[in-house]
Model the fold of this input.
Amino acid sequence: MTDLRSPEPALAGPPAVQRRTAVGRGALGTGARAGANGLLLPGAGLLVAFAVWWLTARLELVHPAALPTPGSVLSAFTDKPDRMLEHTLDTMLEILIGFALSAVAGVLLGLSLAASRTVERMFTPLLVAVNAVPKITLGPLLVVALGWGQKPILTMVFLLCFFPIVDLAELVRSLNASWWQAFRKVRFPAALPQIFVGLKVAMPLAAIGAVIGEFQAGESGLGYVITQYAGIGDTATAWAAIMLVALVSILLYSALVFVERLALPWVRATTSEAYWARQRPRK
Done:
């Protein structure tokens, strides 16, 4: 006789394995979509911004002397690429040197504040007072004290970057243990995520500080280009320099994020696990 019973279903594995497999597939799909959105959405936003810029300049909603068309800005760069790249490298060097100095000093002082109540009480009022001063107001005084050239520019970059790094490095105080062993094995590794947050906050400020310094005391650099060409009415070249400042800032910030991912892969992994956990369907 023919066996009319239904065939046995294929073994699907324990329920826990099925759930992990489903979550893993969902994570891969969501991760792919997130990666695509991470490229497409910023690109779409950039296109919209340039379209608005072109339309505003084309309709002369803003005076052409103040806002040239994107094509004019591109032509201003292509007419003198060697000179613009030379000024770009000068500004990038100032950003990197000032940022490196502020990172070393900020991390050391921040960790010292976290490690010692005495050091904290000695220096916190002074740090608060100095941080409350708008740094741009110090520009003329820096020129008088340090002269023209890179010294006042690097000092301006240092001042703008220093305080975000100190503030976030000082968050290590949340951990309690004996000092040196705790510092080496617990405090410093645990502080690294906060330190990198401070560094990422400080990096765009470094570009701002370099340009402000070049406005006040520069003999080269993109800030110098902006003031010189805007002063003679060549706003297209000035805007080309502004675009290059933005590009340098984005590239250096992205490089810092890449270094953070290499240095702290466990932070990214922990964040990713929490993210995928939030994506799981609720029953």
